[in-house]
Design goal:
Number of domains: 1
Order of helices and strands: HHEEEE
CATH topology: Glycoprotein, Type 4 Pilin
Mean pLDDT: 90
Strand order of the largest sheet: 1-2-3-4
Structural class: alpha+beta
Distance between the termini: 76 Å
Helix content: 25-40%
CATH class: Alpha Beta
Largest sheet: 4 strands, antiparallel
Radius of gyration: 24 Å
């Protein structure tokens, strides 16, 4: 009487577990970088209303000096350690003379919060924005946003 095989051998199961382990070791860091970049990008989008308010302030006054948070119809900033309670993924926002400083809840590989500084440049017809900070790709290649152009 012959018996046919009725399942997987131990070695086959161990090979499958090893393959899953290798895939998880690659996927988890990539997923972490993706979620941090998504948080930073979402917090950057939330700054658009502040950028518009600075634009309006400049149009009304002709100067960026005095375009501060809670003045000239610019909204109130967000105090440090807000941790996304006011705006998702935003730890703090300050506006001083048109310069917007954003700290996100996104973190780098050393668990430091990523920040961006948006500096307005006045052209004859419009304002463009330069971005710098620890949230740029240059500083955090996997977790940063592209700060080279807007």
């Amino acid at each position: 009487m012959k018996f046919s095989q009725q399942g997987f051998t131990l070695i086959e199961l161990m090979i499958v577990v090893a393959i899953i382990g290798v895939l998880a070791a690659i996927a988890l860091p990539a997923y972490s970088d993706y979620t941090q970049r998504s948080k930073l990008a979402a917090s950057l989008i939330s700054v658009d209303s502040y950028k518009t308010a600075v634009n309006v302030c400049f149009t009304d006054t002709g100067l960026l000096n005095g375009c501060n948070q809670n003045t000239n119809d610019i909204p109130v900033g967000i105090a440090a350690n807000d941790n996304g309670a006011t705006i998702n993924y935003v730890d703090s926002i300050t506006i001083n003379n048109g310069i917007i400083t954003l700290t996100s809840t996104a973190i780098d590989s050393a668990a430091n919060k990523l920040s961006l500084t948006l500096t307005p440049n006045v052209n004859s017809t419009h304002i463009t924005w330069d971005m710098t900070g620890s949230g740029c790709k240059l500083n955090n290649p996997a977790r940063g946003v592209d700060c080279s152009g807007n």
